[in-house]
Amino acid sequence: MAKQVIWCVEDEQNIRDILEYTLQSTGFESRGFKDGQSFLDALQQEALPDLVLMDIMLPNTDGMSLLKQIRSHTQYAHIPVIMTTAKGMEYDKIKALEQGADDYLVKPFGMMEMVARIKAVLRRCQARQNNIHTPHENEKIGVDLQSRQAWIIEEDQKEFLDLTKKEFDLLALLLSQPGVVFSRDDLLDAVWHTDFLGETRTIDVHIRSLRTKLKTYGNQIETVRGVGYRFARNDD
Question: 156 and 166 in contact (C-beta within 8 Å)?
Fold first, then answer.
């Protein structure tokens, strides 16, 4: 079985060397990048990694900007990203999650904690792919998990949607079980893989954006007051 590949974007060479050594010692292949531009160049020219470990504080282009670029491109949007930062403020963690990060580590962190977080994110991403089912072809809204494309059908025309990674994951999850109510904490755990302080504002922001992008079908994502959200059943 091929080793999973982890890319580390970290400008401090001594830290980058430790990250790479630890990952290689624990069964991964790893590669380090000193800045955002070299990382973006590699994304365009080489086989994609299984996960990216990215520092927020980088020269020229910061990690948040890089994360936003990744999530805005369909080709890269599926790649799991764990942000690392010396900032421990709650706002920075929330911002990372809202931008589409799968997890975050606050420096200084232990190497074994890092490896455990990476393995957990990889497991959850794989489990999500295995458990979410594509909706029937005759529905007005659909997703393709392989290409990570989503679409709506209006006047017999298929219109592809420009969704972020988290918006796609939310839509796929809600569509997989029409009529089932997901609490905000359920969605935070299933899509962001975290129960960070019960933070639910992230969910509401993404749901609002997703409803807008679904246009006339946005109201099919129903709010269950005091609980969470569900996707309306066809017979509702």
Answer: no
> For tokens 């190497």, what's the residue?
111
Query: 165, exposed or middle or buried, with CB in 10 Å at 0-12, 13-18, 19+?
Result: buried
- Choice between 169 and 39, residue whose per-residue pLDDT is larger: 39
d(CA 7, CA 44): 14
Q: What is the DSSP letter of 140?
A: S
Residue 25: per-residue pLDDT: 95
pTM of the predicted model as reported, rounded to 2 decimal places: 0.62
Helix%, strand%, coil% for the chain, nearest 5: 45, 20, 35
Instruction: Compute the average pLDDT of residues 149-172.
Output: 87
The confidence band for 229, taking pLDDT boundaries of 50, 70 and 90, is very high
Contacting residues for 208 by C-beta, under 8 A, at least 6 apart: none
Give the chain's end-to-end CA distance (angstroms, integer).
Answer: 46
In sequence order, what are the residues at sequence separation of 6 or more whose Cβ sits closer than 8 angstroms to the Cβ of residue 133?
A: 176
Do 181 and 227 contact (CB within 8 A), yes or no? Answer: yes
Give the separation between CA 91 and CA 57, rounded to whole angstroms.
15
Mean pLDDT of the chain: 84
